[in-house]
Amino acid sequence: GKTLPRFTEGDTFRPTSMMMRKGQTAPPELLSEVELISLMNKTGIGTDATIAQHILTIQTRNYAKRVRGNLFEPSPLGMALCEAFAAMGSRDLAKPYLRANMERSCTDICNGTKSRADVVHTTLTQMRQVFIEMKRNANILTTAFARWLNMTPSATPIVRFLFFFFF
Fold first, then answer.
1. Half-sphere exposure of 142 (CA within 13 A, CB side)
2. N or C: which end of the chain has fewer CB within 10 A?
3. Phi and psi for 136 in degrees, rounded to 5?
């Protein structure tokens, strides 16, 4: 909860005190719908007309579920996907940038600052790279699925098949 000064490699500092406190880490608080919408707005995902549909989609696809009225709890499937995407080192998969860029490009088409053909070409090129990366790192995905969905290692070929069938 405290802001640390900026350090660069090679900097040194002398601590003025050191304290050991008993405790443990805790998971972050669940997001409320208002916080989720705020994050979507901040990262450029969705419009006023589409945000509700995006929220419904994450629930329909079982990436997260609504609990205690207004909070979203990630499902094992959602956790598996996030863990796998982060382990793959993919900024595009684990973060909202790819989706936000696509939505900005669609707005640019509407504003006449980009052509539909250019946006389709750029988007397909980016998506092709994501697919190649996913295919190359499929073992990471299947390992995360096995762990979060309580699957045995022998079931991972099934997960790999389903992944490539649906994606």
1. 18
2. N
3. -65, -30
Residue with tokens 């719908």: 33
Written as six digits, the tokens of 5 are 């000064």
CA 32 from chain center: how many Å? 17
Instruction: Give the model confidence (pLDDT) of 71-105 as tens digits.
Output: 999 999 899 888 888 888 665 665 677 778 888 89
pTM of the predicted model as reported, rounded to 2 decimal places: 0.64
Residue 43's pLDDT band (cuts 50, 70, 90):
confident
Alpha-helix residue ranges (DSSP H) falling in the chain: 33-43, 51-60, 76-87, 91-94, 97-111, 116-136, 138-148, 156-166
Amino acid residing at 31:
L
Q: Mapped to the 3 state alphabet, what secondary structure does 74-102 carry?
A: ECHHHHHHHHHHHHCCCHHHHCCHHHHHH
Residues 133, 84 contacting (CB under 8 angstroms): no
The rounded distance, in Å, linking the Cα atoms of 11 and 125 is: 42
Q: Which residues pair with 6 in a beta bridge?
A: none
pLDDT one-digit tens code per residue, 118-155: 999 998 998 888 888 878 888 888 888 888 888 765 66
Say if CB 95 and CB 88 are below 8 A apart.
no
